[in-house]
Amino acid sequence: MNLSHKWFERDKSMDAQRRFPGTGPILPDLPRSPQPPIIASPTSSQLVPVDARFPPSMLPPINAQSTPNPTLLPLRTGIPAPMFDDSLNQSLYKVKQLESRLQMTEISNRALLEEVIRLQTELFNAIRQSQTVLQEERLARQQIENNIRIQNDVILQLTARIKRNENTFIDEHQASLTATASVRGLEQQLIAMQKDNFLRRDTQAISVEGIRKQIDENSLQREQLEKTQVHIGEEIRATRSRLELDSANINLLTNEVRQKTRKLEDDQRLTNDLVRKQQETMNAGDLLFNSFRAATDQKLNEYRDLFNEIRTRLDFEREDRRLVETQLTSKVSDLQSSINSTRSTQTEIVKTMENMRRESVNQVEQTQVRLRQEISDTNAQTIQRTTDKLERLRDEFEYKAKDIEKNQQIENEQRQRQLQAFQSDIEQQMDVLKSTTHDEQSKIYNEMRDTTRKNAESLRKLNDGITLIEQQTDESRRKIEKVLDAEIKSRKHQYKELADNITKSEEKSAHQLTAIQSSINNINTRMADLRDLSTKPEIININRRLDTIEHSQREAEGNIHAINNNLGDIVTRHTATDARVQQNEDKIKGGAQAVRDLTTRVSSLPTTDDLAAVRRDLNEKIRNDLQKSIQQHDEITSQTFTKHEQRVNSLRVDLNLLEEQMTQRINNTEQQLSNQMRDKQTDLDMWRRDVDQKMVRLMNLRETMPQEIFNLNEKIAATRQECMKFCQEEHFRMKSDMERNTRKDHGLTQRSVPIAPASKPTPRDDDYDDDSDYKKKLKNDVEEVLYSQLFASLDCLLFILMMNSCITTICGLLITYLTVLTTIIYGESIHGVPLTKDEAVALTRDHFGRVEPDSLMNGFFPVWAVIQLILAGIFIVVFLLGVLCYCLGFREKKPEKVTDGEDQAKENLYTKK
What we know:
By secondary structure, the chain is mainly α. Among the domains are: 24-32 and 43-165, no CATH class; 168-386 and 473-506 and 541-609. It is built from 16 helices and no strands. Helix 5 runs antiparallel to helix 6 (282-414) and helix 5 (208-277) packs antiparallel against helix 8. It starts with a helix and ends with a helix.
């Protein structure tokens, strides 16, 4: 196209030069912008960058003003050209202008295309960036959702653990009694709270200042309660530290006892060595024996003194614990008194709110009645006044008409001739006047009807607004009642479930306590049997003292555990009551806000003064209109139209103001609701944090208690092992002493028996010469004594093992019950619903990791506890078998009577031995 165009232009210029050889070129070649090669526009799927496709040097800027190329026309001298040539030149010039314009449009279009492509690339880049951002946000959301799911799973697992452990919780009898008493007290308190809530149902009108003051007082009381709770926790920690110090002192005392026992053992060894050295003479032996007895008596007296000191210390500790318990009970009573005082203040607040609400309702009703009466009175007065004015106007008009008729008659009589021509005009004027008066009367009637209709509409709107306000208040009351009924039902259901769970736990605890008591009685009987067998008073005293120490420690631990449980229950219940009080206060605030809205709406209604002013204005306007209607009909009509327009505009303005006020009130209510929701959310977060902290404390206690119990078991086992060693060593010493004494006695008897005269040997003489019967009897006696002592030591060892296994099983049960208690408290404080049996079993299975489903305690018992019970049963069986063997194997063998004198002496010696 460009080449053809150029060839065409060259041909044209050549033709012009041929025709006009003397002249130059008619039109010089216009400067043209360099045209880039035509490039196919890219599709939307394949976008080519702008810089690669369109170089910047070839394109002008978009906003640049395109200046037209100047046309250089030379001055022509000579003969003018004909018209055909001028028209051709003009057409060529126009064609060139069009071509230049087309080039400029192409350039602008290309620039626009470049801008469009650039914008498309930017848009695609922005879309890609937004997609990447959306993908990142999706990934973040997925991660957050996964974290939330994990947290929900963890929470569900914790709740399941709590529910599973709730069914297996068994506490001591005293703790169960205290728990039932506290639950009953809380039920009574909750019943009182429910009654208070029923009474607070109709309380919605109270002053803001009084509520704020009461809320401040409640917050101060709450802070005081929190301080008291913190103080109680610190005191409990101090008591725990005291108990730890006492346990350390007891450990020191036990170590001192051990050292003294070792010293005694060393002394006994020295005495034994001395006895061995001085066995040659009986007198020295007796003296050493007496000295040994005196030393043992002195050491036993020292032991007694030590144990008396231990008892005194334990008594002092018990007195300290009792003092601590009394202090705790006094503080708990103080807390209850403060709570009762807060409740009494709340009841007083409720009563004042009820009185204020009733007064406000009565005032609103009185104002409504007064407004209705005043409106009806104003309507009646306006109607009466308008009717009176119309009658007066009619009378005046009739009177004036009569006067005019009389004057006309007189004039007609006087001027019959003069006024004949004007009678027709007068009659026409009278007709016009009558029509105008009728029109005016109809207009006045229409205006009165409009005013009455508007008054009726305004009254109807007022009644509609009042009815809407009443409906809204009724709906709000109904909603509050529904919410309160639902909350009361849910709480009743929860309390019923709590009572059922408590009764079940009490039954289980009673059953297990009976079983434990029976087992303890059996153990006590066996211990009594063993103690009867053991004839050593030192061992008996040591065992008794150890038992008393263990019993006192167990009682102290049980009391501390019960106090901790009761304090935890009290804290959780106080938090629950505080949350309920806060909810009730929020509801009271909402009711007060609704009452404020009602008061503002009632205050926005028109008052009697406004209505009186409106009446006056209407009366004045009616009078002015009636006076002016007689004089200037046209002016009255124009004024009425303008007034009606002004009234319509004022009504529109009033409606707009009302709409703005309503929108402002709605926005204020929405803001208040959002603030209340935020406050509730913050309160819930604080409550959850407190519950988490308490749960952490309980978990720490649950982790530390097994270690403490294990340490106590190790201490008891060590003391028992030392006692067993001491018993065995004494047993071996007594055995060696008995053997030596028997040997000495046997030698003395052989020396002291006289030699019989030589005679014929009889069978008895042969036996006594050989001394076989005597040796056999001595051997049997020694064996029986040894066997009896051996069986006694074995029975003691088996009994100690049995007690160890029983203690470990009982400690394991206590640990599991502590975990159940913590899970129950945590689940009830978070969800407000008690856990089921299956959930509690699953939670404990997750915690311990080793649970047999078909074991004791309804599918919940650790494996190691079952193994310990089996070992305890095996030890009991072996113990019983040893006792039977001892009873069957022990037989008393009496010596035969001998008549001879020599045999009688031997028999007497035998009986002495």
